Amino acid sequence: MLSDSDLERYSRQILLPGFDIAGQERLRNSTVLILGLGGLGSPAALYLAAAGVGCLRLADGDAVKLSNLQRQFIHREADLGRNKAESAAAAIAERNPAVVVDLLARRLDEAALEEAMQGVDVVLDCSDNYPIRYALNRVCLKHGIPLISAAAVRSEGQLAVFDPRSGGACYRCLYPEAGAESALSCSQSGVLGPVVGVLGSLQALEAIKLLSAYGQVLRAELLLMDLATLDIQRVGLSARPACPDCSAYR
Ligand SMILES: [Zn+2]
């Protein structure tokens, strides 16, 4: 049961046709793993906390640096040097103390990711490197957990939702090898703060939709955008028959 204060706090989304009290209760009974509390993870974690997701599991092994503050706005100047998951947890506690936060303040290898996946309903990949993205994809496939993936660099971003429960492409089908794209990083190529903000917000949106059964989740498509020109496209995604990661589960 939602309390009177819950009904008031979340009233603007409960009002939405198709969201309702049932959607709010689904959010409250959900656990979301957010891997990476940087530019994507900042808006994603804050929106999911504000929306009343019951439990957020925050994983990041890095410390807040001065060059992060231009876009990673969950962290403040006072957090410089602090672990990003810890800093994000403190920011969430200030905004919505009802959210249970599980802290994983370290880099996770594939075995640790397996453990981190216990009880998780949705995973948000807000990381910035290919080895961890591939590992996360494999673990999500193995456990049948939806993976909401985003990336942003320069003025460009992309978003995809991989849901093993409905089949279709996985992250590795989209990027069979860590190729030229892996050379693009924000530290080398630059990025505008609102670009990662848009993509991280879209990850939170898709997670809310998936968990609450509101609206239509992005399925079997990759959303591509260049926000320098506001050019937005959707392209179809299909599974690669020989994909080393998902073919075993088909
Ligand atoms: Zn695949």
TrEMBL record:
UniProt domain THIF-type NAD/FAD binding fold: residue ranges: 10-244
Keywords per UniProt: ATP-binding, Nucleotide-binding, Nucleotidyltransferase, Transferase
EC number(s) given by UniProt: 2.7.7.80
Molecular functions (GO terms): ATP binding; molybdopterin-synthase adenylyltransferase activity; sulfotransferase activity; thiosulfate-cyanide sulfurtransferase activity; ubiquitin-like modifier activating enzyme activity
Cellular component GO terms, alphabetical: cytosol
Catalytic activity: [molybdopterin-synthase sulfur-carrier protein]-C-terminal Gly-Gly + ATP + H(+) = [molybdopterin-synthase sulfur-carrier protein]-C-terminal Gly-Gly-AMP + diphosphate
Pathway annotation from the record: Cofactor biosynthesis; molybdopterin biosynthesis
One Pfam family in the UniProt entry: ThiF
Residues that span the membrane, as ranges: none
Gene3D superfamilies linked to this entry: NAD(P)-binding Rossmann-like Domain (3.40.50.720)
Superkingdom: Bacteria
Function: Catalyzes the adenylation by ATP of the carboxyl group of the C-terminal glycine of sulfur carrier protein MoaD.
Subunit structure comment from the entry: Homodimer. Forms a stable heterotetrameric complex of 2 MoeB and 2 MoaD during adenylation of MoaD.
Matching NCBIfam families: PRK05690.1
Family of the protein in this entry: Belongs to the HesA/MoeB/ThiF family.
Name by which UniProt lists this protein: Molybdopterin-synthase adenylyltransferase
Annotated organism of origin: Sediminihaliea albiluteola
